[in-house]
Amino acid sequence: MTIEAIRKKILTDDAFVLEETAKIQYLYGLKHETRYDLPRQEAIASESVAEHVYGMHILAHYFYPLEQKAANVDFNKIQTMITWHDIDEVETGDTIGYLKTPAMRAAEADAAARVIARTPSHMKDSAQAVLTEYEALQTKAATFVKALDRIEPLFQLYTKHGKQTLHRINATQEQSDNLKYPYVKDWPLMERFVAVVSGTMKTEGYYVD
Length: 209
What we know:
By secondary structure, the protein is an all-alpha fold. Helix content is 67%, strand content 0%. It has one domain (3-203): Orthogonal Bundle (Hypothetical protein af1432). The radius of gyration is 17 Å and the shape is globular. The N and C termini lie far apart (39 Å).
């Protein structure tokens, strides 16, 4: 199937969007393969920030050829930006997006600076450059990566364990969608995935009322 045919199917066929979601989730299987023969033994499956970053890398490979506005964006920059975009969480840990306060966001910026300061010297400049660009959200690369960051949880959570997680944190569809739609509005194929997958999750009882 050509790229143009895939674009058309995504924009017109809900079933195709869900089929593509399942294919991406198959690649997500690597998130759950532990090393050193040390299985996770959790009642509700967890996800590390690094696993979220891996998911974004997979989504970048999927959406980059499909989103026409990304055509002239340096893919290497996208990959680098994905790798570093949540580096502040080495110190702050992760917080659900709709629970973040202005004070928390300010603390994230301070934490990112501390992490960069402790990074090997020859990595600092490139890391700082992509972080600054990402936070400014003034370039296609930054808005593309931000959109990936916001939609990636849909692929992670549209699963049996994801439903348990969403119920545990009492997440509503409105809370989820409000974190996504402002950032995917310029990326029509990602926006389409949000509409179809989030709508399906609502129908199937993933969100609390």
